Amino acid sequence: MAANKDNFCVIMGGGVGSRFWPFSRKTLPKQFLDFFGTGRSLLQQTYDRFKKVIPEENILIVTNDLYADLVKEQLPELASEQILLEPTRRNTAPCIAWASYHIRALNPNANIVVAPSDHLILKEDEFLTAIRKGLEFVAQSEKLLTLGIKPNRPETGYGYIQIDEPVGDNFYKVKTFTEKPELELAKVFVESGEFYWNSGLFMWNVNTIIKAGEQLLPEVAAKFEPGVGIYGTPEEKRYIDEHFPACPNVSIDFGIMEKADNVYVSLGDFGWSDLGTWSSLYDLSDKDEDGNVILKCQSLLYNCRNNIVTLPNNKLAVIDGLEGYLVAESDNVLLICKKDEEHSIRRYVNDTQIKLGEDYI
Amino acid sequence: MAANKDNFCVIMGGGVGSRFWPFSRKTLPKQFLDFFGTGRSLLQQTYDRFKKVIPEENILIVTNDLYADLVKEQLPELASEQILLEPTRRNTAPCIAWASYHIRALNPNANIVVAPSDHLILKEDEFLTAIRKGLEFVAQSEKLLTLGIKPNRPETGYGYIQIDEPVGDNFYKVKTFTEKPELELAKVFVESGEFYWNSGLFMWNVNTIIKAGEQLLPEVAAKFEPGVGIYGTPEEKRYIDEHFPACPNVSIDFGIMEKADNVYVSLGDFGWSDLGTWSSLYDLSDKDEDGNVILKCQSLLYNCRNNIVTLPNNKLAVIDGLEGYLVAESDNVLLICKKDEEHSIRRYVNDTQIKLGEDYI
Predict the structure, then answer these.
(1) Do A311 and B320 touch (CB under 8 A)?
(2) ipTM confidence score
(3) Residue B301 to chain A, least CA–CA distance (Å)
(4) How large is the average pLDDT for residues B327-331?
(5) Which DSSP helix (H) or strand (E) runs through A162?
(6) Quick check: B335 contacting A, CB < 8 Å?
(7) Better-scored residue on pLDDT, B179 or A161
(8) N or C: lower Cβ tally within 10 Å for chain B?
(9) How far apart are CA B81 and CA B73, in angstroms?
């Protein structure tokens, strides 16, 4: 099946997370890492996945100036016009706004799938089918579509989408969005069958999203509207460098999805994880008979249970008598902490930066 | 005070210990390491110490062929004749026998101090005074002298020397040697005031030790006697390479000291440690207010007590929630185990060698 030339993909790859420090670093954020030693980073896996349903030349990466070289290195097949470089970080709404104006200049009928660069998808066929159907859905009407994931546990780290009545084969109107609930509420959500995880993956026609932005986020749209005529030309980067930093920092969820009245969701179970925490990585990974996860390195474990250990390739971890710990080393930092203390990682990173400086961040 | 030209020093630096693995490696044993980040390895510290009382040209290092380059690199001031290279490891008796025949060829009146290369001495002045007095003592009579250390705890990892009647200012005849006692016995030893730790450091006149060897270890002496006339000549190394490997593997303690009837001990408290275990290193090192010892690396510790942590220079250890652990990393190996499980290190090393090979040893 030939890919529809009207279909575009925007991969958002500008994030700097600290939750996987020291495995991820400011100079090498999570999307550029190969967590499972498969030979492809999360960004590369995302690209590989989408090029099966989107024409390769229609796949764009939006990232930060800082990561331009990393993106080119990891995806050398990209033409330079396929990499949109933000001069500063302004969250997802400005990122998506720019990409939308840029794409409309290339193809005023474009249907777009917007995706994070650092998520894991284990069931690729189901996922790609949902993308194909979703793009057809948004091509036919002025709808904003998000992908909802059937929850398998009362996860408190995710946002939830409550569905309303169905509007077609596996498409539902969205009733509400709820950010990270408390555990008790999350349990009620999961049991109700009405709530799905918000994957942060969206589809829409380019005109639908630009119109929604004009109505719901005029202060963002106002930064991009004056550039019409410049997008897709050699002057675009200069325009963006000048106007992008003035955008407010706002997410697409808060700025548009939670406010628009034409928001729909397509449901599925794609073996999806946002790989947001070491625990989520632990849950997804193969374990030895004692519940230990070893990523990338060699290991000899004695009296060890339920740990997650990752050292640089081929390094050897000899560990005796640890239970429930994270042991992660990368470059010049070794982190050892309880696996369920991982919310403290931000504190470790802050303390490190204050006491020891940028070299360890 | 000019150093006595009859005084010689033999530093034994051929050992391959695994007790500090992975900090020490087969290619870089303990004596070549700078445990405390002082800028000088234990071997270098030993050399620096003895050159204050022994003419520099009379200091010899006996080591293994394997470590010739390391010794030359760490002690570039040594002439090549000062490095005796064993073709194979045969414990301390053959090592000392060779050094003795070699030195007698250079100076038939030599008084010799024989010392390990990998011990720590914190009270250098007291130590050097004991060496000076000891060398005078053995110069005047046919006595074998060992240095005894006043014990400060019932250590079960050391050998003990029981003293008999005094024979001069701080010199005692030795009654018995006892290898590593059980804890209860060690406690009795320490309380008795009659037992001292065996430092493994000896002094004697060259003729006294050669005569003792002829009488008590004739199977060793027989390998060296035929070489008389060759020691100190360019032919010596060839002779040793041929005959040394045929020596039995026997320690000077077992082969001579425990059997001779002219063995004496000089007592002292030199801030001595054989640095035989991580625990001994822990005991000797500066601790933070929570009892943690950090060697060489940077650290941020949370909820940590009584650990010993060493990573390569300037590497950062961020550790939350460990108590009583050893965390040691060197090159391609990270070891994490309970500090009091360090007797298991030999097992870790063996398992590593079997399962992963020489690269990690």
Answers:
(1) no
(2) 0.81
(3) 9
(4) 92
(5) strand A160-168
(6) yes
(7) A161
(8) N
(9) 15
Strand-pairing partners, residue A338, are A325
CA distance B68 to chain A (A): 28
The residue count for chain B: 361
Tell me: the pLDDT tens digits for A219-228? 999 999 999 9
| Residues of chain B found within 8 Å of residue A338, distances taken between Cβ atoms | 320-321
Task: Kindly report the pTM of this predicted structure.
Answer: 0.82
- B54-102 confidence digits (pLDDT tens): 999 999 999 999 999 999 999 999 999 999 999 999 999 999 999 999 9
Q: Are A329 and A335 in contact (CB under 8 A)?
A: yes
Q: What number is the average pLDDT over the span A185-208?
A: 96
Buried residues in B86-108 as b, exposed as e (16+ CB within 10 A): beeebbbbbbbbbbbbbbbbebe
| Residue B340's pLDDT band (cuts 50, 70, 90) | confident
Q: What is the pLDDT of residue A93?
A: 97
- List the beta bridge partners of residue A147: A266
Which helix or strand (DSSP H or E) is residue A221 part of? helix A218-224
DSSP H/E element including A121: strand A120-121
Nearest to B332 among A302, A315, A320 (CB): A315
In the prediction, which pLDDT does A97 show? Answer: 98
Quote the pLDDT of residue A1.
Answer: 52
Neighbours of B257 (CB within 10 A): 24
The alpha carbons of chain B give a radius of gyration, in whole angstroms, of: 21
Question: Strand B120-121 relative to strand B272-273: parallel, antiparallel, unpaired?
Answer: antiparallel
What residues pair up with B120 in beta bridges, in sequence order? B273
Cβ within 8 Å of residue A134, ≥6 positions away:
A113, A145, A147, A203, A266
Give the 3-state secondary structure of chain B. Answer: CCCCCCEEEEEECCCCCCCCCCCCECCECHHHCCCCCCCCCHHHHHHHHHCCCCCHHHEEEEEEHHHHHHHHHHCCCCCHHHEEEECCCCCHHHHHHHHHHHHHHHCCCCEEEEEECCCEECCHHHHHHHHHHHHHHHHHCCCEEEEEECCCCCCCCCCEEEEEEEEECCEEEEEEEECCCCHHHHHHHHHHCCEEEEEEEEEEEHHHHHHHHHHHCHHHHHHHHHHCCCCCCCCHHHHHHHHHHHCCCCCHHHHHHCCCCCEEEEEECCCEECCCCHHHHHHHCCCCCCCCEEECCEEEEECCECCEEECCCCCEEEEECCECEEEEEECCEEEEEEHHHHHHHHHHHHHHHHHHCHHHC
Q: How confident is the model at residue A141 (pLDDT cuts 50, 70, 90)?
A: very high
